[in-house]
Amino acid sequence: MTPIEIGLISVVAIVFLIYSGVYIPIALGMVSLVSIWLMRDNFTLSLNLLKVAVGDSAMVYSFATIPLFTFMGLIVSKAGLGRDIYEVMTMRFRKTKGGIGMATVGANAVFAAVTGSSIASASVFAKVSVPQMIAQNYNPRFAVGVVAGSSVLGMIIPPSAMLIIYSFVAEQSVGDMFLAGVIPGILLAIAYVAAIWFMGRYTPNFVGGRVVDDTEWMSRGEIASKTLPTIGLIMIVLGGIYTGWLTAVEAGASGSLVALVIALVRRSLSLSGFWEALLETGHITAAILFLITAASIYSRMLGLAGLPNQLQDLLAGNSASFWTVMLLHILLMIFLGTILDTTSIILIVVPLFLPLVEVMDMSLIWFGIVTVVGAEIGLLTPPLGISCFVIKSTLNDDSISLKDVFMGALPFAFVMLIVLFILIEFPILSLALL
User: Where are its TM segments located (predicted)?
Assistant: First the structure.
């Protein structure tokens, strides 16, 4: 077989193995190792490339952002900052049709800025927001759909684990990726709020609920006590990166320290909770390092097979336009999103399309934002919408089926698609802060 044929078979094999339940790094690494061996008929070369991939992944200084921001997010979650922000948002939107849904989006956007995890957001707000919406006669599908849709904000609003993974795959600055995600993340949150207003006005039966005015207004002191810790943490992390005072690693370290101080001052962190956060940080960091190492050997395999160049020649021979390439990229991500998780999509698709983007002289930072937003849609689509599964398992409510969660999330997936096309058409939205 030719290297091209081996490369194509390897990509199909990786998708099949991941869908069959094989651990993603194992599938990437094993297939890539065997493919290089077959292409070069040299097992020693395959092992040497694997050794180089491990060294390149583990020795990169900016990799330290992963454990630092992961630890910060876990401590913030344990400190109860998500619930505080939600309570303030709910009070502000209480007189609006679908107001609790809007409050959930706003709180999720703020919470995402200090956790960077859609799974954490889905878990927290499934417990906090859904019961309250159902108690006020909201349609259960709308209630779980809002939480599922807004939870993906954690993947685009920095500090985002997906932006970190993309930065390693595409060899871009983590700090630049964080700054590039700010405006798209805010734009997506605003689009969600506008969609909820539209649904409340024109499809009130889908939204349900009632406008209530029995919530006591908080005093300025209460609002400050519930919001200032989160705002201060965001200012330190993103403000430090934006002003250039802190690198991404230093911002992660500073944010972790401040989050720990906040949790201790609020007396919301026990010794056992602190130990659990440390252990979970280690588990998540090790898993991501394994992913990055596997992605590195996979990229080298694709390069040896010549698949990116072959795809580039194919599109150039057909005089493919910019939008043709982007539509192919989006369709591939949406298709893979029905069977794979976001991390798998980024690791499989990005190495194929990076050379095309470079030839078109487009920003790899912008392409990263487009890729992450496109891959996020897969979090809301069946049969493997991870956020939807997390919400279902967190609620543990037999009256709300997994189908209800997916159907409720569908309008928000459509909103994401619209925002994605806007980001493609106007790259300045992703690059304005750089």
Answer: 7-38, 58-77, 98-122, 142-166, 178-199, 232-265, 277-301, 321-354, 366-392, 412-433
